Amino acid sequence: MHDFRLALAQIRPALGDLDRNLALHLDYVDRAAADGADVVVFPEQSLTGYFLSDLVPDVALPRDDARLDALREASRKLDVIFGFVEETTDHRFLPAAGYLHDGEFVHVHHKVYLVTYGLFDEARDLAGGGAVRAFDTRFGRKSMLICEDLWHPTTASIAAADGADVIYGLSSSPGRGVAGGTNELGSAETWRAMNRLYATLHVCYVVHCNRVGFEDGVNFWGGSEVVGPDGEVLVRAPDFEEALVFATLADAPLRRQRTRLPLRRDENVTLNGLEFARIAAQRHRLDDG
Amino acid sequence: MTVEVSLRERARRGLDLDAGLTCRVLEAFIREELEKFGIQRAVIALSGGIDSAVSCALAARAFGPERVLAVLMPYRTSNPASRADAETLVDQLGIYSTLIEISASVDGLLGELDDDPSPLRRGNIMARARMIALYDQSEAFGGLVVGTSNKTELLLGYGTQFGDMASAVNPIGDLYKAQVRALAEALEIPRAIREKAPSADLWVGQSDEDELGFDYETADQALYLLIDEMYAAEDLIADGFEADLVHDLQRRVVRSQFKRRLPLIAKLSNRTIDRDFRYPRDWGR
Which residues of chain A make contact with B10, given a CB cutoff of 8 A? Predict the structure, then answer.
């Protein structure tokens, strides 16, 4: 991996207001570039806001939409990872994370696990993706996952097995759980544990970029962070407040930690593939009656 | 070593509140959700009880005391101590207040009735008279109404629809009574307000717990286990909760569901408001 300087843009998107959010993105891109960042990452649905319901078709965009031109242009200064809702040519709407470099999409990840339980109702309004990939950038191999994707540990396993040195997690995570004793929200506590676990066991960097603000009374708690391959938190943005924080992600810690703890080397991808294929086939037969 | 804890203990732990963190979220909630409407002022019905005291204190923190109006609306049978407690809080917080007696308007309406309404009907009339005065003050002060119903009363339906349940935003509606008490302590609400017996003060000597027939502590714990932790009634009963109480609480929650929803709309079109026409409340904000 090539060393690079990352900016985490912990923003407060306006619900359903593309123009306002686009301006917000350009402002943060400029500030990140001015501070020497090579890559800037925004949260899930950073361009649209989160609890959209029937607003989805109003804010969904095909990736070649002219309204993204300014952001594409901005990616000539530094790589931009952002969240949006992509409309396909057959008019499905998918929560998406885009990786822009030099005016072009390097990769788009579609949220695989739509969340439709509790306070969430994504599958009513959105379609889910069907792939988890690592992809090459000028700084090495990366992967992007979106929020609920990371509550399924297999997605991080696939990303790591596919060679990602950095897993970018883009979130709109609602804050909940205010029981005493921990000094943090229950949802924050779980996310921090997950980020640390994935970084440690996949011996990679985990970048979690979460938003702040309120939508319909629901708070998003922020606390964006970068966790290094040894499980140490490299940088953490404050809870609840807009912030732009920076971290340098270097190759040397990856080499050192992978030497000390060669979990990646020993991961048996063939075994995983065969066993999951067997289980999938068995389940398919069962589901078929 | 034993790891298993009783459900009652589990409820105690679950209801234990990180007051500092909660205040932070709720102040930001009031500030951000009202600012989306271009409003930085709050109007609150202050009864002298703990719930409205907490809402006032949170709003004062969110916007500064000079942007909060407490509306005191006693009826002639209201406990004078309630008003005194409310005035103490107004002084302590440094918020604005206004006194609007509802006796004349309530008695005027009661005088037009040709029967002798039950205490429940009288209580509802008072609650709705207060709502009218409160929403008028909301317009006059240029602020939105911040609610004062806690989760326990909302779940039990222990409130008047379109009366004390009416508000634009409610910071304490996801806090059980015991959690409101913990928050009140952190917010330094006067001891007299925190320690008196909860009362809707709709008639002389009324006590919530006498009227409901159970104490808030038990109700909070049972509701927390049933609603938040999704235990079955049988689990609670096996743990020592009184069966009649658990069933009574469940019945109250079910029976009052209508109060927590908008009025039903008869569906005719393909896109009916709130059923298939679903936009966030913060639409365009």
Answer: none
